[in-house]
Amino acid sequence: MHKVTTLNQFIIEKQGEYPGATGEFSSLLHHIGIAAKKVHREVNKAGLAEILGRVGVVNAQGEEQQKLDVFADHIFLDELRASGQCCGMATEENSGIIVFNEGWCRDGKYVICMDPLDGSSNIDVNVSVGTIFSIYKRISPMGHDLALDDFLQRGCDQIAAGYIVYGSSTMLVYSTGNGVNGFTLDTSIGEFCLSHPDIQMPDDGKLYSVNEGNYANFPTGVKQYIKYCQEIDPPTDRPYTTRYIGSLVADFHRNMLRGGLFLYPPTAAHPRGKLRLNYECNPIAFLAEQSGGAATDGAIDILSIKPQTIHERVPIYVGSRNMVAKLMEFLETEN
Length: 335
Ligand code: P6P
What we know:
The chain is an alpha+beta fold. About 30% of the residues lie in helices and about 25% in strands. The chain has seven helices and 15 strands.
């Protein structure tokens, strides 16, 4: 009989490895799992539940909010408030920070940056979407108000990061700084079960993921790298192939398991890149490094960037470390 390790069992076992662990962080992860199951339920019946489409409102980014964006945002805010371990959140769907002032969570140890439903414009066409989260310890002292700086910490200071990918199956993938583990939702028992222990991103890969529709405005070094990938050398061997879903979590998840490089360079529409540092690039970069990969903005490691604003955007090149290194050869030649 194959032993099934549920997320809760795994969290408790791992907690035992941290002598000082008080169970607070474990409880936070448990509540993230609960919220993920609630979002899974709606995402998987979106076509039936009159929950598709747009709300007719734009979010802090000026982007059309999808009904499921707002639903997922509310689910995670409510569940993490209820956990009592989180004292506030910064999410893509809210322009400012959300402070939890209720007595049972005002002194929570942790703050969370989150994209509640990334790639949601793909929902109506049944493409995988995801939740991306980043967990930090609060900086502001207990008993004092939360401040913006609690949510502007460097990615290297993340306590944990992860994503949920709502795809052909729903998976929760996270790291607390000691490797990356993946859990697949077994809907027959309603539990996330360990399916991908100790994920190791291959050092090399044959996949590159970029929206080549923006090619004209890419930095020269990125254009040179793409041409390098497209060269046939030797003539009979086609070294690389491109895969681009247009949903960050889905593209990254595939590349982490198979090896590959995801690129979102500066473009005409987004001169500083499209993806947000706090709740997309930092958690993804943390998982990349924890699984043996690398992540840069083209100049420095993503995790070393000091955020200046909550919704700050940065260019990102993330994936197999040898592919990142090869790209950097072209970018450094350019600079
Ligand atoms: P483009 C989805 O809208 C998203 O935020 C990420 O999930 C995805 O990687 C990126 O934007 C796709 O952007 O400009 O290629 O459509």
